[in-house]
Design goal:
The chain is of the alpha+beta class and 212 residues long. The protein has two domains: 2-51; 60-208, Histidine kinase-like ATPase, C-terminal domain (Heat Shock Protein 90, 2-Layer Sandwich), CATH 3.30.565. Helices cover 47% and strands 23% of the residues. It has six helices and seven strands, in the order ααβαββαββααββ. It has helices spanning 2-11, 19-53, 67-84, 105-122, 154-157, 175-188; strands at residues 63-66, 87-94, 100-103, 128-137, 140-147, 191-197, 201-208. The strands form two sheets. Strands 2-4-5-7-6 form a five-stranded mixed β-sheet, covered by helices on one side. Strands 1-3 form a two-stranded antiparallel sheet. Helix 1 (2-11) runs antiparallel to helix 2 (19-53), helix 3 (67-84) packs parallel to helix 4 and helix 4 (105-122) runs antiparallel to helix 6.
Length: 212
């Protein structure tokens, strides 16, 4: 835009610049404005979502939120990581978007983001698909996050949600899944488990009671 403004300013008084040239510069400016608008809107959404996530988690806010609100925040905050590592998040919704869950949405978003980031990292830089499904069950809402990456080693499976262990070596602390498991049980009264096969992938499940 700055280059186009400079170009336009230099053209003032230049007899060789035609009316068509002026229209061409104006159209280029409009084109860039059209490109800028969605990015600034996206930035605004990210800032709003991050401000919500940055709240003090010691002050648990027990409110209800909808499935639609939850999905929007997760997809918004994961968009950059997915693009950066050439991964695709496929969301499949088999429940009403207006279904309400009771608890702190910020805690839950952080848990899902952590699991999705683990799935991205499991592909080790390769392009991969992550399936995020949400469906109704008798005991509540079942969330599943599935990847087709390297899977979890057998010697870690039994400890992964109950101890601070990691599959990432020096790059991991083991806190993420351990804290996620504790939060799902303690703050949401839900369940969390996983299934994994080395060389084929991993699926994490989270089951939450609905708001009643």
């Amino acid at each position: 835009m700055r280059d186009l403004v400079d170009e336009y300013e230099k053209s003032i008084g230049d007899e060789s610049v035609t009316i068509e040239d002026h229209h061409e510069i104006a159209n280029e400016m409009r084109g860039w404005l059209d490109k800028i608008k969605p990015y600034t809107a996206y930035m605004s959404d990210v800032i709003s979502a991050v401000k919500g996530q940055a709240r003090n988690f010691d002050q648990t806010v027990m409110l209800s939120f909808t499935i639609e609100e939850l999905i929007k925040r997760i997809e918004l905050l994961m968009k950059y990581e997915l693009i950066r590592f050439n991964c695709i998040l496929k969301t499949s919704l088999n429940v009403e978007k207006s279904t309400e869950i009771y608890g702190d949405i910020n805690s839950l978003v952080q848990i899902f983001d952590n699991i999705i980031i683990n799935a991205i990292q499991a592909y080790e830089g390769r392009t991969g698909v992550i399936e995020f499904t949400i469906e109704n069950e008798e005991d509540g809402i079942l969330f599943a996050i599935k990847d087709y990456a390297k899977g979890i080693p057998e010697n870690i499976k039994g400890k992964l949600l109950k101890e601070m262990v990691t599959t990432k070596g020096r790059n991991g602390t083991g806190l993420g899944l351990y804290m996620s498991y504790s939060t799902i049980r303690g703050r949401f009264g839900g369940k969390m488990w996983f299934e994994s096969e080395e060389g084929k992938g991993t699926t994490f499940y989270i089951q939450l009671p609905v708001n009643n």
